[in-house]
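Worked example
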Amino acid sequence: MSVDPMAYEAQFFGFTPQTCMLRVYIAFQDYLFEMMLLVEGVMLKKLDSIPGCKISPPQLRKCTEKFLLFMKEHFDKLFSRMEEVLLQLVLNIPKNVLLPEDRVQEQYPYSKEEFQALQDELQQLQQQCRAEAAAEQALRAELEEQKAVKAELEKILQCFDGLESICREHGAGNFKESFALLTQSSKKLQGVLKDVEEKSKKMKLCDQLM
């Protein structure tokens, strides 16, 4: 069998020429074996009809196998020549023939160096696309977080608006001023609470000493 991969022929035919020749060889060989079995069966019938024949079936099988080996050796030689002719003249695409799907290569030829440069550029573009996709995903996550913060801020603003409306209803005036007064009052109350706690501690100490 030929060792040439014949890739261009495989692209055109859809199968490798060597595979085609192998199938043809197997088909011829199977036919040869079947033919020898038929010949052996006919000879056995003929020998049974001859009175006094001393040839036994095992002896006939040995003769059949020898003849089959002889036929196979000659068949292999003939098939080798046939394979050479078919691979060269029938299943071979000449070097000057270009398949229709490869015409674009003739119009836009590229050297190995140019092709490698294109491959490198393609890899760089793929990396950039992956980086941009990751950045877009991060931006989307940040946008979702900003949306959540905005919603919380809107809730707080609604709460302040509600407090301001309550202050106006009760004549408290400006909400900011009221809030500042509440803060001062709270600080004063905290100071009074501390004084009370200190006086309470002193009174407890006095009680203990007495």
Notes: Helices lie at 7-13, 17-49, 57-90, 103-107, 112-169, 175-209. The radius of gyration is 51 Å. The chain has two domains: 7-97, 135-208.
